[in-house]
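Could you help me review a protein record that somebody else here produced? This is what I was given.
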Amino acid sequence: MSDFWKSYDITAAEFGPGYECYPLFGTVHLVELAVSALFILGMAVWYRRAGARTRRRILVGVTAALLADEAALLLGMALTGQWNWSYLPLHLCSINVFVCLYCTVTDQNWCKEELYALCIPGAMLALLCPSWRDVPSWWTLINLHSVSIHALLVLYPVLLVAGGYRPSVRRVPMVLAFLFGSALPIYFLNKPLQTNFYFLNNPYGNVITSAFTAALGEKYYILGFLPAIAAALVIMYLPWYVIGRRKH
C-alpha cells in the first residue's frame, strides 16, 4: 500500500509508537498554518465585498467542500480496508461539519453562535496542535484531510462574522447546552466502541489533553476542559462586549 493511504494503525506498526511525520511548529507545520491563514483571510475579504447572491454561493460551496472532505476520508479508509469505529464523524469538529450544513439550510442563529463560539477556537487549536502527525508523511490522505477540513471549519464562521453576523453573550447557554448535551452520549458511546471522540476516553495523542493530564493526573484530566472552555469563551466574547460598551 502506498504511504498516501496509510492510517495511524499501520504507521504505528511500521514506524513504532510515538512516530510523528513532522515536528510541531516545524517547517511543514508552519507552511500549513500560513497557507490556511492566507486562504481564510482571502475568502473573508472576498465574502465581505460580495453581494448577497455571491455570499450565498460561497457558503454553499464551503459546505459542499466540508462534506466532500469528510466523505473522502471515510471512503479512502473503507476502500483500503482500514476503516474502524474511530473514523465515525463524532469528534466535535466532525459534528460541526453537519452544523455548518444545517446552518446553510436553515440560517438559524443558534448554529451560527455555536460555530463562532466552539468551532473557531476548536478548529484553530487543532491546526495549532495537530494530533494527526502520526502518519508516514505530510503527503497522506489523513494529514491533507485534517488540515483542509479544520481550515474550512474556521473559515465558515469567519465568513458569517465578515458578512455581518454579531455574536451575543445571551446565546452562550445554548452553546453550552449543545456542547455538553452532545458530549454526554458520546462519553458513554466511547466505551463499547473503544474510541476517543471528544478526547473523553483517554488523554493520549493530543497536546492539549496531555497538558491537562500533566496538571491534573490521568484520572481527572477531563476537568481541564472546564477552565479551557471558560477561557475560550472569554477570548471569543470579550471583544464584542468591549465594542458594545463603547457604543453605549
Q: What stands out?
A: The chain has a mean pLDDT of 95. The chain has one domain: 3-247. The first helix runs from residue 8 to 15. The CA atoms of residues 85 and 194 lie 8 Å apart.
